Amino acid sequence: MMTSKKKILVLLEEGFIREESVRYSIELARRLELPVALLMLVSDESNILQAEEALVKRLMEPIVQARIEVTKEVCSGDKATELLKYLAANSSLATIVWGSDTKMMGKLGSGKPHHWLNRLKGQFPCSIVSPVPREGMSNKKITGG
Amino acid sequence: MEDGSAKIGEKPEPRRILIVDDEETALKRMQRLMENRGYETHTATKGKQALDLLKALSFDLVLTDLVLDSIDGLAILSYTKKMSPDTEVVIVTGYASVDSAIQATKKGAFHYLQKPIRPDELFHIVEEALLKRGLKTRVRELEQGGQTDFSNIIGSSPKTQAVKAVIERIKQSEANVLITGESGTGKELIARAIHQHSRRRSQRFLAFNCASFVDELLANELFGHVRDAYTGATKTTPGLLESADGGTVFFDEVGDMSPSMQAKILRVIQEKELFRVGSSTPVPVDIRIISATNKDLKKLVDAGIFRQDLYFRLNVIALKLPTLEQRKDDIPQLGMFFLKRAADRMEKSFNGFSEEAMGLLMNYSYPGNIRELENIVERAAAMAQGERIELQDLPPDIRDFETVAFRRDKSSMKTLSEIEEEYIHWVLKQTGHNKTQAAQILGIDRVSLYRKLKKLEFDE
C-alpha cells in the first residue's frame, strides 16, 4: 500500500554518515512543515545491522527533540534494490537528503561512476540534496559498523 | 485577476459574497439580507472554513466578523488580499476600537462596520464596495489593452516567460491541462492563472486535493448525495463538481486518486454527467479539469496504478513547471515580493537584501522550491533588526552548508509530440485501426489524421 503523506527522506548508507544531513533535514522540515524519515541501507544481514539500528536511533534524537515527526527504517540487501522498493512503497517524497559520502554526489554521474546510487539516475521521484559544510565549518562524520 | 463584469448581451453573474461570523443567528440574518438583494452567498462560522472557501472560490466581497477563533477577521482580510487583491473586505464587529479599525484599514479593508448592523447602512456599504470592485477590474482591463495580466506570476526569467507564454497560448482552449513539477513550484497558482485567463473565468475555480480524502468522503464531496443515500443524509446535497458547473476544477496530487475514483472522474469527462451518491439519475455537468502531480504519472500508468484512458484525457495539454533552481534569475524578484508581503503583515519596513544575503539566496538549491524561499524570507523578515535583510537573518543551515542538488534526468520526461504519438497509437488500437472512428475520437478530420500518421511514419 502506498503512503501519500509527503515527507523528507534522509538517505544513509552504512559506514559513512554525515551528521549535518540530520541538522539540515531538521531545518528543512521546519521550513516545509513536513515529517522526516530516516532510511539506512546496509549491504547484507551481517553483524553490523544491530549497530546501524542503534546509530539510526541516535540520529533520530535531535529530530524528536525538535518536535518533528520522524520514522526510521534499516534495510539490508542490495542497496539499489532496497531503495527502489522503499521508493515504490513511499511515493510521496518531497525531497531526499543524502547523508553519506558526498564524493559520489557532484552531479550524480561526475562523482564515483560505479556507486550504486548512480545506477538509479532518473529513477528518483524528487530532488536529492546533499548539504556540505562551507569552508571553515566543522565536518562531522560518523563511521558506522 | 478576476473579471467580475458581464459582457454586453450576457446575463450578469450574481455577485458572490462570503459572510463569516461565529454567531449563527447574526450569520443567517446577514445571509438573508444579502440573498434578498440577489447576491450569491457562502457562509463560514470558523476562520479556517473561510480560508478554505477563499482558496476554492472567487468572491467579489467578504463580510467578516473581527473576533473569531485563532484565525480572526484581520487574518481573513490579509488572506483575501493575498489571494485576490481586487476582492473587497468589510470588517464587522461588536467590539469596535480605534486601534483595530486603523489596523483593518491599513491592511486594505474597504470599511469597518459596528454591530448592531442597520440593513440600510449595510446595503449602502456593500453596493459601494462592489462598485469599487467592478471599477478596479475595468481599470485593469483598460490598462492591459487586451494583454493578459500575469501580475500573480512573479519573475521574468526565460523559464517563467515560457510558462506565461503557454498560458497565453491556451487561453482560448477548453482542453484539460496536466501540470507537473516538484512540490512547491506553484502548480495551483498556475492552475488559477489558466482559469483566470480562460473563458470560464467568471465561473468557479474549485481546488481539490486528491490525497486529503478517503474514497467515500471524496465521492460524497465531489458528487454530492441524495436524501437517504446513507444514514444521516437528510436532504439532497449537490457535490462540488456540480457547484463548479461551467467553471474549472483543479485536482491536486491526482496521482493519489484511487482506481474507483479514477473511473468516476473518467465518466464525468467522457459523458459530461455525474451521479450523486445514492442516485441513478444523471446530472449534466460542464467542467474543465486542470490536474497536477509531482509524480511521474506515465510511470504510474505503466505500473497499472493509474488508468491510461484517464491519463490521456487529463493530459491533453502538458505543462511542466521549472524548479526554482532552474529559474534562479527570478529569486531577487520573488524575494522582494515575499519581503514586501511579510513587511505589510508585520508592519515593518524593508528596502531589500544585502549583497551577501542575496548571494547566499541565489546559491541555495531549494529542494522545497518557491514555498521554501517564501518561508526563508518570512523568517528573515521576522528576525531582521534593520531595514535590510542581512546574512545573519537567514536560517543557520543555509549559512553553514553548501547544498548540491541532483534532479530527475530531463530525458526521462516525454515531449508533447511523444505523448501525442502514444495517444494516436492507443486510439487506433482501441478502434481496431478504424481511422474514421479514430479521427472522431481525436477530434480531427480524417485528412489531418492521415497527415499525422504520415508524419509519424506509422505502418499503414
Report on the architecture of this protein.
The complex is a heterodimer of chains A (about 140) and B (about 450). Chain A is of the alpha/beta class and about 140 residues long. Chain A has a single domain, classed as Rossmann fold (3-Layer(aba) Sandwich). Chain A contains 4 helices and 7 strands, in the order E-E-H-E-H-E-H-E-H-E-E. Chain A has helices spanning about 20-30, 50-65, 80-90, 115-120; strands spanning about 5-15, 15-20, 35-40, 70-75, 95-100, 125-135, 140. In chain A, helix 1 (about 20-30) packs across helix 2. The relative contact order of chain A is 0.25. With about 450 residues, chain B is of the alpha/beta class. In chain B, helix 1 links the parallel strand 1 (about 15-20) and strand 2 (about 40-45). Mean pLDDT of chain B is about 85; it is low at about 1-10 and about 410-415. Classes of the chains: A alpha/beta (about 140), B alpha/beta (about 450). The interface of A and B includes residues 20, 108, 125 and 134 of A.
Task: Give the structure's gist in a few sentences.
The complex is a heterodimer of chains A (145) and B (460). With 145 residues, chain A is an alpha/beta fold.
Which SSEs are present, and which pair or pack?
The complex is a heterodimer of chains A (145) and B (460).
Chain A: E1 7-13, E2 17-18, H1 20-32, E3 36-42, H2 49-65, E4 70-76, H3 79-89, E5 93-98, H4 116-119, E6 127-133, E7 141-142
Parallel strand pairs in A: 1-3, 1-5, 3-4, 5-6
Antiparallel strand pairs in A: 2-7
Chain B: E1 16-20, H1 24-36, E2 40-44, H2 47-56, E3 61-65, H3 73-83, E4 88-93, H4 98-106, E5 111-114, H5 119-144, H6 158-169, E6 177-180, H7 187-196, E7 205-209, H8 215-223, E8 224-225, E9 237-238, H9 240-243, E10 248-252, H10 259-271, E11 273-275, E12 282-284, E13 288-293, H11 297-302, H12 308-314, E14 317-320, H13 331-346, E15 352-353, H14 355-363, H15 369-383, E16 388-389, H16 396-400, E17 401-406, H17 416-430, H18 435-442, H19 446-456
Parallel strand pairs in B: 1-2, 1-3, 3-4, 4-5, 6-13, 6-14, 7-10, 10-13, 15-16
Antiparallel strand pairs in B: 8-9, 11-12
Helix pairs in contact in B: 2-3, 13-15, 17-18, 18-19
